[in-house]
Amino acid sequence: MKLKVLVISLFQLFSLSIIAETDNEDLNFYKEIGIISQDEYDILNSGSKLLNGKYLYELRVNGNIESKTYEILVEDGKMYFPIFKFFEIIEFKNYYQEGQDINCFLGEDMQELTIDTNEMGFWKEKEFYVLEDNFKEYFLRSIRIDDSNFRLNMFLKFSSPRDIKNIVARTKDKLEENKDKKDIIYTNKPTLFELGYLRVKLDKIYSKDKSYGSGKFKDTWDGKLEYQGAFLYGQFLTSYNLKEHELEDNKLLYNDIWEQHTLEIGNYSTGSSSREWGISFKKDKGYLITRDKTYIIKENVPIGSRVELLYMGIPIAVEDAINGTVYFKNDEIKGDRQYILKIHTPDGKIYMKKIDTASDYNQQNKGQIEYNIDFREVAQSGGKIRGTSRIYYGLTENTTIGLDYNRDVESIDKSYKYIDTGKIELIHSNYIFSYPYTFVIGKEKSFTSLYDKGKFQAKGQIDIEKFRIKVNREKKDKYYRDKLKYEYSLEYRPINNLLLKYEIESSKFYDKTKEKNKKYSGSYSKSYKNFLVSGEYEHSTLDKDKYMLNFYYSGFRSFTVKLENQWRDSGKEYETAFTIFNNTNGKFDYSIELRHSQRDKSMITFKFNLQYDNWFNFDMLADKKGNQQYKIGLDRIIDLKNPKTIIENIDSTRVKVITFVDANNNNIYDKDEKKLGNVKVKIGKNEIITDENGEGVFYGIPNHMIYDLDVVIRKPSFVLGKNKIKIKGRNTSTLEAYIPVKPMLTLTGKINLNSDENKPYEQKINMYRNVLAKLKNNEGKILEMSVGDEEGIFQMSGLLPGKYIVELEYIGNDYHMNPVTQEIELDYKEKQTDVNLSFGINLEELK
């Protein structure tokens, strides 16, 4: 049957390809003598497609011939493509049938495609045929059909299995190539003192307030200096208010001083003439929880950064860093969610920071320890210090113990006194019937006789399928107003991103009063491509209903649009805000906000902010009442060691590169080794050429990111070798990166004939030139090849120190020779870069 179809199709291919090129007069002749039928005449004469039936086409995919016999079905002038045969031809196997659906996973990103066979085509002889238009939509970027020559030329919209195999093969080769390379990473060394960076911020402000005065514009100004530099083996940060002549916070930071902990020593401004000293040592979680259970995300970022807050991949807010810290307070920030901070540094770099607001109850792994220690002077108390010290230690993988000691400073009888309390806490988590649970028991006790300031607390949590149950019970001493407090909550997630919650809060007070509050709430978030919708409703027995509905869209190039709506007081109080903000930290950064509030008598507020090229900014604020404010400012960063250099990020480092000839191949600069000049080094777009002393300096390289050093050695007898040089700045002290440059070795070998020494000279030359020398690594991979000259000498150059195998093999037709191998180790010896070897061989003449 298949042979018959093949013969018929070949005949059609031959005859119709000739007839299709004829004119109407010839077609009439062919019809009259019976070569073509009336139906065939009508189709050929009208230029339509082929008759109903099956046709064999030559199939090209991405320019390559894949099949000469791809069978196409034509019905009612429409072409149908057999999908399983197509899969077989391109070697696509990543599909399966489920009922009436064909599920495919296309390309490297495994894009899912579901084909409903009830709607998208028809079955015939265990093959499923898809209409041309649908076939193109599913699989093709373009298709060219040549009916006269029966050719199909397709270009896929996804990576074919062969493409993926080639990519994997190239990746494997690249990994093989790089596996022997050694990463050399340099970072800053702590320094006693080094001049750093100064940020100058000046603003001119014009404003008028219709509520006071004549409504004329008044002008004022504002200015600030910020400094960051290396000091006492840490980072010193300070700021000075130029207008108020006030020194603001001074901080000495030691980032990641131990297991992601940060040590901070500071002298802080209180907003008055007094100042406070403080010290803290803690691991930052990236978020804070206020007393009203509001979440605030806080993160230290490079000064001048612009930061996006992403939820479900969509930007929901953007903030500019203030003195190296960014804060997000947003109704979209909830517990048990994951957020991403997309940080755009002033120099155009981008990096991500994950924030999880899930409750971990400060649990630790076995043997792991975490500290949170904070001491702060209370200025108005006359020098007294309030402090918090908290330690969590993992006793086992499931059990953690916590110890607290707090010293508060309170005003009692017109004098400040200490209130000391201690707390012990036990946290245990495990599974029961495969359901995870956690419970916490804590006891707080006062060590001050003035007050009974203590409490007992027990809380727990368990997850059962789609439900989460939380319980919290507190019994407090008379220092507190409430005697007993109970909290219960039931959370239910019927589907992804939908949360239904029921809460009960009950308190009994020492004055014998009671208070009880019940809350019902529901929230739902859904993202699709660049669109996010988020809604929330809350009903409380002690408060009016409130609800919100927010929309976010980030599909407009580099800016995001958001529409936020909130209803409070059971819908009577309404506020909406329409905002457009730029997502990047590029040449132009802007945000536009239009806000309407019923609370402020239907006031409409318009805000506009523009930043240009990290040195100029403009702010505008106007409302319906006629109040206006305009701010024009200058914002610039100066490297105090090189003021002419343009610096875009105050949290940067200078990188000093030193290129040297690594004569002993240890990748370490030794004092007797020579430095090599005229070497080009690149970090991103920045490029320098080392001077005659082998030195060069980069300025303003942002910290906390790893950069590759691209090294180009202009002298042909030197190479970088198998090293990859990387840097990662951690502070503002100068980072020194030593780049070892390797002189290349030359291997010279001499072939000696152990027999037939009396052969004629021409014959000996022929013998030598048919001996192939191979240089292999320890795994047997051939690295270099060479043949002997008329004297039996061969050379291999451009080699680096290491262990190799040299193998000699006779490749001629006149003699037989057993391969000769020799293991060698190349090394630098007294600045000598040539290695000489001698080989003896025996050639047996073939009879």
From TrEMBL:
This is Carboxypeptidase regulatory-like domain-containing protein. Keywords: Signal. The keyword Signal applies. SUPFAM superfamilies: Hypothetical protein PA1324. Residues 1-20 form the signal peptide.
